[in-house]
């Protein structure tokens, strides 16, 4: 009896010790992050102005801007999401809801899980060989978007499959009992219910892709771009043009890398301002995704 009491007390002490250590590590991690953000913001404060947002890169740090970099970041990420999100959700839905469980699907599932952990520079080498050289898309926006789409595709597939598995089986059975087909059940019941979790996984995947510089450097993205992509709207019929997809580009991670590699101290201030701008873009994209996710959750409550 005494042994059981002592063991119970020891378990209580271990639980409390673990809680204290976990709380300390959490506060320590958040504190380090806050210090880094505050220090970066203070360094960037002298350059966070309208001229920095609307100016092009320059050899003089006080005149250098990030217009082409942040516009390129938005354009590349929008094209990446358009390419990766539908394909990833469709692949995950097929594997989870329609495919038969055999050796082929098991082989595909194992490889998707492994691809989610592959270093990003490997995807850069793949994009260089396939999109830039084999398909001759050159160092263009579409090459960068395709490379980043392949990078985040396994993450979206894994997150979507987990979201679909979390939907109770009773919802599927109730839909079948009312006479719905499998496709009608997936389209009208399963996907809408899983969409908030799918969007959460997509947010995390996009947040990873938006800060990647290695794969874009590997495909040969430019470090100095003093122009914007071509306009998608034209005055002539059909009033839309996709030639901008073949334009050269740069993104904020590459521009920040370029500034940090320069010896002048003024470029370090520009790099800090670029980091803050990149964080703002990430927060904006995450906010848009969170709003869409909230709309889906609200619709499901109805």
Overall description:
This protein is mostly helical and 302 residues long. The chain has a single domain, classed as MetI-like (MetI-like fold), CATH 1.10.3720. Helices cover 74% and strands 0% of the residues. The protein contains 11 helices and no strands. It has helices at residues 2-44, 50-54, 67-98, 103-115, 120-134, 141-165, 169-177, 182-210, 214-218, 252-260, 265-301. Helix 3 (67-98) runs parallel beside helix 6 (141-165) and helix 10 (252-260) packs antiparallel against helix 11. The termini are far apart. The mean pLDDT is 85.
SS-based structural class?
mainly alpha
Q: Kindly, what is the distance between the CA atoms of the first and last residues, rounded to a whole number of angstroms?
A: 55 Å
CATH top level class name: Mainly Alpha
Biggest pleated sheet: none
Supply the number of structural domains: 1
CATH architectural grouping: Orthogonal Bundle
Task: Supply Rg.
Answer: 24 Å
Unreliably modeled segments? none
Topology:
Blueprint: H1 2-44, H2 50-54, H3 67-98, H4 103-115, H5 120-134, H6 141-165, H7 169-177, H8 182-210, H9 214-218, H10 252-260, H11 265-301
Helix pairs in contact: 1-11, 3-6, 3-8, 3-10, 5-6, 6-8, 7-8, 8-11, 10-11
